[in-house]
Design goal:
By secondary structure, the protein is an alpha+beta fold. Among the domains are: about 220 residues, Rossmann fold; about 210 residues, Alpha-Beta Complex (Isoleucyl-tRNA Synthetase, domain 2), CATH 3.90.740.10; about 35 residues, no CATH class; about 60 residues, Ubiquitin-like (UB roll). About 35% of the residues lie in helices and about 15% in strands. The strands form 8 sheets. Strands 22, 23, 24, 25, 26 and 27 form a 6-stranded mixed sheet that branches. Helix 4 links the parallel strand 1 and strand 2. Helix 22 crosses helix 23. The longest helix is centred in the C-terminal third of the chain and has 19 residues. The protein is globular and about 105 Å long. The termini are far apart.
Length: about 950
């Protein structure tokens, strides 16, 4: 028989079993729902009439948005949810008004792909998945305020996602004020002449299309023709983060190409400095901060202009402007539009054969090479070990300091995503430039003196020499000499010269690129944008929101030959002509006009950029969020200068995606006065992962873990030996264990305890179903200490506990309370176990005061059994809002501690003393101890070092 259905259960009808746990848990979950136990009052509603509740400090606790998968939950998924629930329960018991709830991030590609495969509307499958996941989460006893839950696919939610998009679209970043401002204020500057137009004409003289183009260059949300990651096999554009290192789609493993498409973008780069600087005030793991700093990638250097005959300038950004005299050629990213403007009709006389790639004209060479580069990922293009490839454009630029004409190439090792998409190549001092120069037989000129014995004739070198701790050489013209200067001084001097001569200036560059915000998919938020007959984008008025998704016959984007890079996307929405082509009166005085809707949809990140705000005020149909409510839950306060959620728990994999995007949206909303918090999440905690063993047969195919047998240290499936390795848990790996299985065999409280006891929350740990029984037995012992297993009666007495029990109790209260506050739940459980074992060994009925304190200690961790025992102990109010026990200091401190007395570093005595003893008292006792007197043997004492109450160190004369 199993642990949960043994003969002992029959002999003890009131024993805590899985069946009893199921009954207790279901009853209390129903009670909590009916009672509204976890409903957090808002300052503009319930709190206004409840001074006692209003006086409580608030605590806003959040989990990262779950996606409702059709596979449901495995036991790894709820790790973070259980942890935040335990923490939230402890915070309630320590006097906080706690907001803790959970919604669903429900738009996205998985549901759409399922719709493509089955013909099922994505809403139907998504809502079914939400219903299943909600039931699974409810069974765990999570204390969520269910009034505040929602899914991003609800039109009343994405109405406000669309509204925020319009706020961003109708804003620009004022660098002088260092904040976003309404676009109307920029228009007013152009109209008044305060800000000149790019070509100097009056604003009134410009056409509507010209004005729209100028404003688009400033808007925080804008459409542009930009290089994108185009996956013909998926029929959609992908973000950089959705492309694997080998240039394939993360989902589906299709080839991804660089292509130029009209796409919506978010000008997140305008906030680069603020996104970087405000990290300092956030309570986040340093590893996550570092990832964001590296992703933003701030670097100081100089802008340098290289004139090209008849084609303007090629502008580069460099952090090594001191090496400008060593620039012997230039390289443009293949995608740069400038390339078309600079290529001549024919190769210049004397063009090196290696430079042409065997093509008859520069145009042919560039076209062929661009196609080759488009098939490579950014990672492939920048790989250090690969052979350097490229082709001469046929154009020459002029080095502004040397006057030398330098050839201009395109090469795939230069990316559009950094700087200006162009570099000045200094092959003597950059490994990639050196390799390229060798391959294309280009000059290599030393301008930084090597510290080794290679000399300054770079044509003889085997590799590049790079150093910041060196002197400049070969770097002078008639107006300036850098020779003899160190790198730092040379950079300052050349930057001054560049600015004086109008060919450059010092500047800051960021690795961060604007956020590609379009997807060629159906299952996403429609853009609240329409286009007039001139192609000008117009925002829908707020009264027309939400713009809901129409019904379509085919949910899939049109897909193509995965290897055909020259295709263009066709979105599902574009095939619904009745929805796309509309006649609208936008309220702008133009009257009813014909428009065409935007047929891309927003990316899956959109809904999770602001969901913390909807939790605050989920039923508000008039505003994004009530200002007083937002100020109460998220506003700046002492220790949280930029405001935000008090605790946000989730995986570290979202460091530079969701977390960065949400910070950007929060800052825009703050600048425009819609929220008081400039940051969405003040404290971030990354939980570890629950792993599981994966078993594979001789073909490398995963086999069902539950059916594998262990014999003599080896593992077998259906008689065949299989390998075992620790990895992720998941349906595809056939090692998933569902919470339903564990709840059915042991109960939800046991599952909660086991997941919290497995180890530190921020560390990954392996799942072991066999070990779950240990926490089940803890709950059984707890139950027996309060309830008679045969009669079902409570066994506590009103007598005072003994001193040993009081000391054990108050030490546990002190330790568990500190561990709960610090999210050290595994050690909190260890302390509860230690206390419960002490009470079990002590024998006899528990004192009521001890039993009640024990139940309160357990309540955050195992709320169902705690609620049941609390009620059986005679209480009529829920345990959820009871005060957490407070330790009596008199019982926390040991009566005596052991003090070690050393002479010349050797232990000569151990003294049992009071923890409160003074240094002087301890010194007197130590010197009087017989063992110490004997060890000194009459010798004088040069020094006595006292560290009360643990150590006395005596130094003889």
């Amino acid at each position: 028989m199993s642990e949960t259905n043994s003969a002992a259960d029959v002999a003890a009808p009131h024993r805590y079993t899985a069946a009893m746990a199921a009954d207790i848990e279901a009853r209390w979950q129903d009670f909590w729902d009916a009672d509204g136990t976890y409903e957090a009052p808002n300052p503009t509603g319930d709190l206004a009439g409840d001074p006692e509740q209003a006086a409580k400090p608030k605590k806003f606790i959040m989990d990262m948005f779950p996606y409702p998968s059709g596979a449901g939950l495995h036991v790894g998924h709820p790790l973070g949810y259980i942890a935040t629930d335990v923490f939230a329960r402890h915070q309630r018991m320590t006097g906080h008004n706690v907001l803790h709830t959970l919604g669903f991030d429900a738009f996205g590609l998985p549901a759409e792909q399922y719709a493509v495969q089955t013909g099922t509307h994505p809403r139907i499958s998504t809502e079914a998945n939400i219903e299943n996941m909600t039931a699974q989460l409810r069974r765990l006893g999570l204390g969520h305020d269910k009034r505040r839950s929602f899914a991003t696919i609800e039109s009343e939610y994405y109405k406000w996602t669309q509204w925020i998009f319009l706020q961003i679209f109708n804003s620009w970043y004022d660098t002088d004020a260092d904040r976003a401002r309404p676009i109307a204020e920029l228009v007013a500057q152009f109209e008044s002449g305060e800000r000149p137009t790019p070509d100097g004409r009056d604003w009134s003289a410009l056409s509507a299309a010209e004005r729209a183009d100028i404003l688009s260059d400033h808007r925080l949300a804008y459409a542009s023709d930009a290089p994108v990651n185009w996956s013909p096999g998926l029929g959609t554009v992908l973000a950089n983060e959705e492309v694997t290192a080998d240039g394939r789609s993360e989902r589906g493993n299709f080839p991804v190409f660089k292509s130029k498409l009209r796409q919506w973008n978010m000008r997140i780069t305008a906030y680069a400095d603020r996104l970087l600087n405000d990290l300092d005030g956030l309570d986040w793991p340093e590893a996550i901060k570092l990832q964001q700093r590296n992703w933003i990638g701030r670097s100081e250097g100089a802008r340098v202009d290289f004139p090209v005959d008849g084609a303007g300038d090629i502008t580069v950004f460099t952090t090594r402007q001191d090496t400008l005299f060593g620039a012997t050629y230039m390289v443009l990213a293949p995608e740069r539009e400038l390339v078309e403007r600079i290529i001549p009709a024919a190769w210049p006389d004397g063009t090196h054969p290696v430079w042409t790639g065997g093509h008859a004209t520069p145009a042919e060479a560039v076209t062929a090479y661009r196609k080759q580069a488009a098939a490579k990922s950014d990672v492939e293009r920048q790989a250090e070990a690969k052979d350097k490839t490229g082709v001469f454009t046929g154009a020459y630029a002029t080095n502004p300091v040397s006057g030398e004409r330098v050839p201009v190439f395109i090469a795939d090792y230069v990316l559009m995503g950094y700087g200006t998409g162009a570099i000045m190549a200094v092959p003597a001092h950059d490994p990639r430039d050196f390799a390229f120069a060798r391959a294309f037989e280009l000059p290599i000129r030393c301008v930084v003196e090597p510290s080794d014995d290679r000399g300054t004739d770079a044509s003889t070198w085997e590799d590049a020499f790079g150093s910041y701790d060196a002197k400049l050489v070969n770097s002078a013209n008639d107006e300036i000499s850098l020779d003899g200067l160190g790198v730092v001084d040379a950079k300052i001097r050349i930057t001054e010269w560049l600015k004086e001569h109008g060919v450059g200036e010092g500047t800051v560059n960021f690795r961060l690129r604007d956020w590609l915000f379009s997807r060629q998919r159906y299952w996403g938020e429609p853009f609240p944008i329409v286009y007039d007959e001139d192609g000008i984008a117009h925002p829908l008025p707020e009264s027309m929101l939400p713009l809901e998704l129409p019904e379509v016959d085919d949910y899939s984007p049109r897909t193509f030959d995965p290897d055909d890079a020259d295709t263009q996307p066709e979105t599902p929405l574009s095939r619904n002509a009745d929805w796309v082509d509309v006649t609208l009166d936008l309220g702008d005085g133009a009257g009813p006009k014909k428009y065409r809707r935007e047929t891309n949809t927003m990316p899956n990140w959109a809904g999770s950029c602001w969901y913390e705000l909807r939790y605050l005020d989920p039923n508000n149909s008039d505003k994004l969020v009530d200002p007083a409510i937002e100020q109460y839950w998220m506003g700046p306060r002492e220790g949280q200068p930029t405001g935000g959620v008090d605790l946000y728990v989730g995986g570290a994999e979202h460091a530079v995606l969701h977390l960065l995007y949400a910070r950007f949206w929060s800052k825009v909303l703050h600048d425009l006065g819609h929220v008081s918090s400039a940051e969405p999440f003040h404290k971030l905690y990354n939980q570890g992962m629950i792993q599981a063993f994966v078993y594979r047969d001789s073909r490398g195919i995963a086999v069902p873990a539950a059916e594998v047998e262990e014999r003599d240290g080896a593992y077998y499936y259906e008689g065949e030996k299989v390998s075992r390795v620790l990895g992720k848990m998941g349906k595809s790996l056939k090692n998933a264990v569902t919470p339903d299985e564990i709840c059915g065999e042991y109960g939800a409280d046991t599952l909660r305890l086991y997941e919290m006891a497995m180890g530190p929350l921020d560390v990954s740990r392996p799942w072991d179903t066999r070990a779950v029984v240990g926490q089940y037995r803890l709950l059984q012992r707890l139950w027996r200490n309060v309830v008679d297993e045969e009669s079902g009666e409570v066994t506590v007495v009103d007598a005072e506990p003994g001193e040993d029990t009081l000391r054990a109790l108050h030490k546990a209260i002190d330790g568990v309370g500190g561990d709960m506050a610090g999210m050290r739940f595994n050690t909190a459980i260890a302390k509860v176990t230690e206390l419960n074992n002490h009470l079990t060994k002590a024998g006899g009925p528990l004192s009521r005061s001890v039993a009640e304190a024990l139940v309160l200690l357990v309540a955050p961790l195992a709320p169902h059994i705690a609620e049941e025992l609390w009620r059986r102990l005679g209480h009529t109010e829920s345990v959820v809002h009871q005060d957490f026990p407070v330790a009596d200091p008199a019982y926390v401190v040991d009566e005596t501690v052991t003090c070690v007395v050393q002479i010349k570093g050797k232990v000569r005595a151990r003294l049992e003393i009071s923890p409160s003893i003074t240094d002087a008292e301890l010194e007197t006792l130590a010197l009087a101890d017989p063992a110490v007197v004997a060890a000194l043997d009459g010798a004088g004492i040069r020094k006595v070092i006292v560290r009360a109450p643990k150590l006395v160190n005596i130094v003889p004369a």
